[in-house]
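## tool: complex_structure
## caller: assistant
## args:
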Amino acid sequence: MLADAARGFLDGAAPLTHLRGLRDAGLTHDPALWKNMAAMGWAGILVPETTGGSDMGHAAAGVLAREMGRTLVSCPFLGTAVIAVTALRQVGDARAGSALAQIAAGERLYALALDESAKFNPQAVETRAEKHGNGFRLSGRKRFVVDGAMADRLLVVARTDGGLTLFDLPADRDGIARTPRAVIDSRDVADIRLDGAEATGADVLGKVDDAMAVLAPALRAGQAALAAEMSGLAAGAFAMTLGYLKERRQFSTPIGAFQALQHRAAHLWCEIEITASAILNAGRMLDADPANAAMAVSLAKARATATAQLAVQEGVQMHGGIGMTDAFDMGFFMKRARVAAEWLGDYGYHANIVAQARGF
Amino acid sequence: MPHDDPSGFRAELRDWLAANCPEEMRDGASTEDSICWGGKNWEFSSDAQKIWLDRCAARGLTVPTWPEAYGGAGLERAREKIFHEEMARIGARYPLQSFGIWMLGPALLQFGTPEQKARYLPPIARGEVRWCQGYSEPGAGSDLAGLQTRCEDRGDHWLVNGQKIWTSYADRADWIFALVRTDRDAPKHKGISFVLMDMESEGVSTRPIRLISGASPFCETFFDDVRVPKDQVVGEVNRGWDVAKYLLTHEREMISAGGQVMGAGRALGAVLADSETGQSDPVLRADAMRAEVDGLAVGLTLERYKDRAEAGQGAGDASAMLKYAGTELNKRRLELVIAAGGTDALDWADGRAPTWLRTKGNSIEGGTSEVMLGIIAKRILGLPG
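## result:
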């Protein structure tokens, strides 16, 4: 039901042409669209009811993410409504509560400033938060901060004396410089330079030296939702390809009558179905047993990454020449699949987590 | 993951298993040597095997999901899951396995007359009658509906002539369910019937087939003027293809799940850890990691489709996906197992080599992977031709 409602809304408000329109206008997102999503309760789908959300859980968030993946919706859902909300929920003080309420209302956008290298590695943080009076001064460089240019707030991971600490800072604080990047999927990504940016003890999310207590659940939630988005992406690209196999004629017959293409299409459908099982399982585990959900989440992200990449490669190849053109939408699927493959951990990163859990 | 148990079913079952499952039946074995297939001529490997079968049969647990009236326990999906979990928890062997349970039973429950159900199902549940499947023929493999075994109406009986191949355990089975041609003029799918035959009937003979993996359960089965009573056709005459297709979906799910039992019982990580080269060879390790990721996802998919079946949506044509994915995965896994074993795994006595060779048949028996992909392309994706 949630899926049908989401699809109905997105088919009208954010079909594939919406992303193309943004891209052609040089924009990365549509604030009015996010306002509408917030009004429907999507921004608050993981926010507690006491702070204005609907608290429907990660399986439901995955349903929304999947539907957004079908039409490649560009919006702050993952970074704000999933990752930031999950982090803020781990804290649960009054300040976090008011942040959650603002997120649910669609009035506050977050971005996670974690990565410092070209590959996801949440432990490899060199950004320093030096003690300064009662607070800290943050210096370092963050790379590939998703939604980093549009965000009102930044979740910054920095090294403190005894470990990593998570800061919740206004994005316009002195000493923070944001440089938007032009990334292939036309979304908002920025590099961020911290140059002595000041933070107080009140800006720390959770405990000093213990970022992972707050961040790890947020990363898992984000990875699961991103996997769900990628499964929707794969399904969307496949639907387009399947339609083309039935309609395109060569040698006086629909090309979908050729067994070589039939078997590849059938194999791809199997992969999409099998990946869907891993996505559903991850959502269920995050809701039922979040402390033990790491393997389920990594299984989902690994499978979704492989499946989405297969779907877009087959999508372009089976469309032939038109699949290579910018006028046709398959390229948007391919570009988003590549970005989503890297963000929050690629296939190898997550396959390693699964393997460790399975005795490797 | 444990499931809810509001009614105390789990606790009751756990107590019953503790009191009734003989120690020797708690080794978790599901090898060819440990399986109880049942049947008139079955020789129990131990007293414990017989006791375990009789106790389970008395409680309906050889066929837990069948109706109680036909020897089952009438368990719905949630309780069936609990049953499997509790069996696994103590490593209990399944008391009985058979084609009667996996294939004929579901088909009879769907298509059989009340008389046929009452006659054939309870002996399957008790392990008294062992069935084999007569589908493929030398000239009808992937093109199964091209089968030519003749079944003629002779008034008070049917007369069957022809040959089947790949009939698993035909040499040890008591009865056979077979597809035969009852109308040679009709289009090929419209002239087939589903008949049940006693293997002791005059004119039935079998010959075993040796496979690349060594001795095999497969046989050729010959029918030479075999007389069959008229009430042994299941479903309508000339509509046997409907029964056949329904049964095939169960066969595919069985083969798909069989791959899981054979391979996925043990994580590939543990297999590599036990081997001399497995941990140090990065290429083998990477391949094994991919197979492990895919294996977990395929396992979740089998569970998801079982859950859907319980909700009244059978896997249907999607059983082709389960069969394709499960058997191709099983081949990948056994390639890795035997590679991890190196030369240690190459002796016949080792067990890994015959298992590895046997998996090559998984993606052929019950419909090849290519046939499965064709079913998906045409019936699920609606591609032309």
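## assistant note: Chain A has a mean pLDDT of 97. Residues 30 and 75 of chain A are 7 Å apart (CA to CA). Handing back to user.
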